[in-house]
Amino acid sequence: MLDTGRLAADERRAYRIFLVSLLGALVVLFTGVFLGFTARNADFLREVVLERAQSLFRQIVMTRQWASEYGGVYVRKGPGVESNPWLEHPDLQAADGSLLTLRNPALITREISEIASVRDDYRFKITSLNPLNPGNIPDDFERRALRSFEAGALEYWETTDGQAGREFRYMGALKTERSCLACHAKQGYREGDIRGGISVTFPVDRLEGELKKNVALVFWLELLIAAGTLAAVLFFVIRLRRQLDRVRSELEQAATRDALTGLYNRRYILERFVQEESKCRRSGQPLACALIDADDFKAVNDRFGHAAGDAALRIIAENLKSGVREYDIPGRFGGEEFIILFPGVRAAEARIACDRIRAAIEASPRPPVLETARLTVSVGISDTVCSRGAGTNRDSLDSLLFRADEALYRAKSGGKNRCETCPDESGSPDREPGT
After folding, report:
1. Portion of the chain with pLDDT greater than 90, in percent
2. Are 159 and 167 in contact (CB under 8 A)?
3. What CATH code is carried by the domain that includes residue 402?
4. Taking the complete model, does pTM exceed 0.85, yes or no?
5. Into how many domains does the chain fold?
6. Is residue 277 part of a domain?
7. How far is the C-alpha of 90 from the C-alpha of 93, rounded, in Å?
8. Does residue 187 sit within a domain?
């Protein structure tokens, strides 16, 4: 017989492994989705700020190009308007006698940056590793960017902690144009050379704050969705487990129980027979066996019909179930024949229990289909005392059944509705059991 306890333990262990694996896979899935969303949002933020920086850089370059095409722009000198000390002869007398001073692209860039830093919260600066104006000396970020330009890059950016908090810093390479040679040819630059760059800086605290809020919102939403999904998965897995347990129980019932009476079937009884005899041999205890046969069952079927016969068998089965001890083993042996195994009991004690069951069957209430029927049973009982330490002996099992069947034959011959015991183990039955 299969070790159902071990099978159940193995099944529970496999179920736990499956459930843990499934939950682990869902956790990995949701974690991956969250990390992917977080990374995508970070990339999107970087793309947004980079596009803004590139747009500002292009606007500054176009402004410089416009100024370069006209050789710079003259503005009227007045309070706060100083001449560019790095230009030769920057001042000019206008026809009306007013004094004008030249604003070259580099100075235009600086002055626009000062206005932008006040009004639009961003600033930019033209610089190079070899500036004419000491005010254009690069800082550490700009120096790293300029060195990357020397290696062939055309743009460079970083997000750093700056004077306005978290700042995005971008720098684009600045090529030497023909109009720039007037000032920079003496530095050895030629048209098309990268002679420096323009850095753009603006704060990103607010954008990063919004990103963190979005990430936190997505985290809690995903946590709720994950919890709901896990709960649903657990619900369906537990429901599936219960359905499988029910199906398994039904299969076990079908394999070990008689469908009509609910008693153990012949196959299971014989398996238990082997087990119980083995236990008796280990302990030296007796084992009794009772064969029970419905009297005149064919007449019941012929007179009242097969439905009445089935009802009669169920009445006998119910009395067998209620009339034995918890550890006794009642079963249907075949047709209208039943069997009870009595572990640890001699035939005389088993006969007392069987007489009680026999009387209960005779006195049982009848359903309408059996109202006028007489329902009695005959019982044959045998026993054996196993030698301690001996192994299972198939001959002794057959002998126990044969002797119980012989006792049943005597009960039938003696008038039916009675119990008989086999007097000893030496009896040799002259017919097969169950005939």
Report:
1. 26
2. yes
3. 3.30.70.270
4. no
5. 1
6. yes
7. 11
8. no
CA angle, 412 then 413 then 419, to 5°: 45
Residue span of the structural domain in which 310 resides: 266-421
- Indicate the Cα dihedral angle 163, 164, 168, 173, nearest 10°: -50
Relative to beta strand 91-93, strand 99-103 is antiparallel
What's the whole-number mean pLDDT along residues 150-155? 88
Cβ(100)–Cβ(94) below 8 Å:
yes
Residue 412, domain member (yes or no): yes
Task: Look at the block and give the residue holding tokens 């850089």.
Answer: 57
Give ∠ CA 254-260-265 in degrees, rounded to 5. Answer: 50
pLDDT, tens digit, 9 for 90 and up, residues 254-285 = 788 898 999 999 999 998 988 888 888 888 88
| Nearest Cα to Cα of residue 324 among 295, 294, 344 | 344
Pairwise CA distance, residues 82 & 101, whole Å: 8
Domain annotation covers residue 216: no
Tokens of 297: 């069952």
Q: Give the pair of three-digit tokens for residue 246.
A: 């029910």
Q: Give the relative orientation of helices 105-119 and 4-69 as an angle to the nearest 10 degrees.
A: 130
| pLDDT for res 192 | 58
Strands 286-294 and 337-343: antiparallel
